[in-house]
Amino acid sequence: MGITALVLGLVGVVLGLFVFLFWMSWLPALLAVIFGGVGVSHARKGRATNKGMAVAGLALGIVGLLIAAGSAVFTAVVVKHAVDDARSEIKEAKEAEESKAAEEKKRHLSFGEAYTFGNGLKVTVSKPTPFTPDEFANGHAKGNKAVEITVTVVNTGSRRVGVETGMPDVKDADGISAQLVIDGSGRQKVITGAVPPGGKAIGKYAFSLPPEAANPVEVKFSPDVSQWDDAYWSGPSS
Fold this sequence. Notes:
Oligomer: single chain
Distance between the termini: 99 Å
Number of strands: 12
Shape: rod-shaped
């Protein structure tokens, strides 16, 4: 009994030192306690002479059980932290995706609505209105429908902000781009330069749509495409 307890106690302790093998170490440690207790009892009754081995086995068994219990707690904590971290990452990824989707939705507006970019420029795109190009117009084919787009930019910030790429892009519902119309009437105005705090800049742009252009028409615009994603305005072309 004493020898068995000693061997099982050693096995339990050694296995317990490998933290994630606690599920294997508790059984030999428990058996070491049982056999060690029986061995000590036999030694007291004079039935055995290896009381030291039995005591050592009993002690090692107790130590093995303590190590197994501690390893189990440690493993449970580690697993819990790992699960919590995984859940946190999933939650953060989901929230980031939802935030991105919400921001994307905000950038799709109807004509006449305003969108404020991160630099403080609040942009409004008007509903397209009919436009009659003059006889010297470039970009307008006979039979096409010409419309005018008005872009209003208001600086809601506290510093001057430049409009680096203030040219809108117009497409119909099928994704076909409209042709920019340039004539000599002086009615078109391109937004350039910087807008002072509280200031306003208005751009007027004419586009030529083919007769079969499908509604709704979509206008894409950004005051600086290198920094800010485009916002989109849509609605019927007239």
